[in-house]
Amino acid sequence: MRKFKIYILLLIASLSFACSKILDIDAGKHIILEEDYYKTEEQLKAALRGAYSTLAEGNLYGGNMLGRMGLDADEGYESYNSDLNTVGDYNVYATDSKILGYYRMSYRGVNRANLLLESVDDPAIKISEKERNHIKGQALFLRGYFHFMLANKFGGIPLMLKATRPNAVKTEDLQVPRASLKNVYLSVIADLETAADLLKPMAEVNTGTQASKSAAWAMLTRVCLYMAGQPVNETSKYAEAAKWAKKVKDENYHDLNPSYERVFVNYATDVMDAKESIFEVDFYGNGTGIFATTGGSVGRLNGIQYPLDESNIGYSNGILRSTSYLFDLYKTGDTRRDWTIAPYQYTGTPRVKVNWTPQTTTFARFCGKFRRESETLLPKSSVYTPQNYPIMRYSDVLLMYAEALNEMPGGDKDLAKEQINIVRRRAILDGTTDREITTTDYTALKEIIIEERARELCFEGLRKNDLVRWGIFTTSMQYLSGLVPVGTTSYIVAARTYYANAKARDVLWPIPTYEMTVNRLLTQNVGW
């Protein structure tokens, strides 16, 4: 099958007698999860689909994380009125509903993975060892990833390594103190390492919508880099990051799509490109028929603004706009700029495509990576889109490999330089003066990596975390605050607010107030 689809389990005969035992019914995804339910291979796979589907929820990649959580930092900003006075413009409180939704949904993903892990080894389940291992590996990967998502937004968090069952939960079961950030990362690494041994290689999985060995190794690279950076500063992890990135390369399976633009058109048109896209969130459908809510908001929230009408363009809020910093990073011949930052807008009645003028370029352009124009599924919904969303691309692995090699003691600077050049050769036209870098100086390479990650990976939800681990989040946001031009245009006002609001405490989100009333052992982050 081309995609890891979610199918409905029909349990007509048993539902009327088992209602009290159902842990969670997600009718939109057609998944039934139940605490003592996993007795067959298909039931294990249904539970696994439930764990994956958590990533696609509106509180995570299905909505808020696409442009309403302030994750784009110096690359772009939220320019939508409904995000004022929220985490979306750094005017945030511990009662923020988006932060609470993120926290609770991430732990729901952890719990779904734990429920599966507590059943998967049951010898009574008839399943081949290879398939059992692959299911277990995916559950471990997801548990690790959900814990990682929590850690890099909240710092140290409660580690939940056993399932919580609603019908059996006790108040004392919810009283769990925060583990240190270092110990959370070590737990994530342990899950991902075990998962890597159990998972199938990408050559067999052949889709980025399922975890594979490559996905586990690539995620280990990311976690090790985060642990090596601030605030943990466990610098020995740079060498481990390089080790895991090398394992992805040594598979001799992955490669960059020759066209940067095509990478994102593939996400919009349901084309699997497992050589480039190592792990992605799966969305499909247009909100009609039986799979009514399997679509997401990719392109609708973070696309080129377009009104609701009968055209085939597709409605988009146009929440994300770019900054002058990002615009100026792209040099002559870099084909990524006018795809990543759309050079046009739709205006007038009826709407026509009009290029931005040079005077309005630097803070006006919309994110252009996720274009609804690319979608081929009709009719186009004003609520749901079928576009997938990248979590890990091969170009990211190459840039992380370069960074790890540059930072680790005795790292091969020539090899680091080559990883960067592989990414640049795809993006920058042949014959352009600065298509390839030649320096092997540590400081120069570090600055190039900081900039190249913005050029290549902008608007993919990574930038804020990168700035935090490099220790330059506050200074970067203050610098951008000084670049916002004077004016009263709504998006200029939004940009000024976004960057002026960012403070040192914003390297982390506050622990949600509601959760602190439930778990009395939680402590609040500094500054909140």
CATH class of the domain at 38-68 and 93-283: Mainly Alpha
* Oligomerization category of the chains in this entry: single chain
Unreliable runs, pLDDT <50, ≥5 residues?
1-33
CATH topology of the domain at 38-68 and 93-283: Serine Threonine Protein Phosphatase 5, Tetratricopeptide repeat
CATH architecture of the domain at 38-68 and 93-283, please? Alpha Horseshoe
* Radius of gyration (Å): 23 Å
Supply the helix-strand structural class. Answer: mainly alpha
Q: Count every beta strand, where a strand is a DSSP E run of 2 or more residues.
A: 8
Short overview:
The protein is mainly α. The chain has helices at 12-18, 41-55, 97-117, 129-154, 181-198, 202-205, 213-228, 237-250, 260-269, 324-329, 337-340, 394-407, 413-427, 442-457, 463-470, 473-483, 490-501, 513-518, and strands spanning 22-26, 31-34, 76-78, 277-281, 320-322, 344-347, 352-355, 389-393.
